[in-house]
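Hi F.,

I've been meaning to write this up properly since the lab meeting, where we talked about keeping a consistent format for the predictions we share between groups. The idea is simple: the sequence comes first, exactly as it goes in, then the structure tokens exactly as they come out, then a line or two of notes. No screenshots and no reformatting. I'm using this chain as the first example so we have something concrete to point to.
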Amino acid sequence: MGTLYLIGLGLCDERDLTIRALEVLREEVSEVYIELYTARPKGLNVQNLERLIEKKVNVLSRELVESNYLLNRAKEKNIALIVPGDPLVATTHISLILDAKRMGIKYRIIHNASVLTAIPGACGLHAYKFGRTTTLPYPYKGYIFESPYDVIKENLRRGLHTLVLLDLNPEKGSSMTINEGIEILLKIEERRREGVIRNDSILVGIANVGSEDEIIKAGYPRDLIEYDFGEGMHSIVVVGNLHFTEAEALVYLADAPREILEDA
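Output, unedited:
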């Protein structure tokens, strides 16, 4: 009987793997897999990862990860699935270990940094003042999904910030841009007219958090929709009620308009 290892890659590339993860990948497992459908960090190069761990790395599709493919392999040998960020943030991977438990297959989790923990601090916002996280998907055949708007609305009602994760573009291998995300939110606001995304709303755009080319920019929707955040993994924070230390951090760390200091 083998063991299934779920290993967090971290935020950016293979250099973010923990020492514990490297030991397992080099010494404990015979097969290594990676999934890149929940996130695809801009700096990640699979060939560099292979050189680092001295093993071939197989990229798995969502269909294979969500099937019994990995579990069947783990019945006979030690295998590892590398996941961008932390391995248990995506519900797919929680289902994987639940299935392993039901099938009597041993598993081990090696955690790492996630955008859910990195972004609040990178923006200078208080982590305990974030409400429910939401994902903004691409429109499908002209239909715009409005559930993220409702999540933002409820968080704002409670004075809380909202982390908006942006959908992946499978054709480009990168996330929806911050500009595209704001445009979608404004279209929903135009239809709903509930004052959730206003002209004076403070948003924060975060690109490639934790990397050398990290960009964090706060401002009003009309300003950020024109801002060049470059390529890579993008996210948005819709800001709720600000503590004065958060307002100061946004001004000095994210170039937010100075007038937010007057309201905090």
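Notes:
The domain at 3-110 is CATH 3.40.1010.10 (Cobalt-precorrin-4 Transmethylase; domain 1).
The chain has two domains: 3-110, 115-263.

If this format works for you, I'll send the rest the same way.

G.
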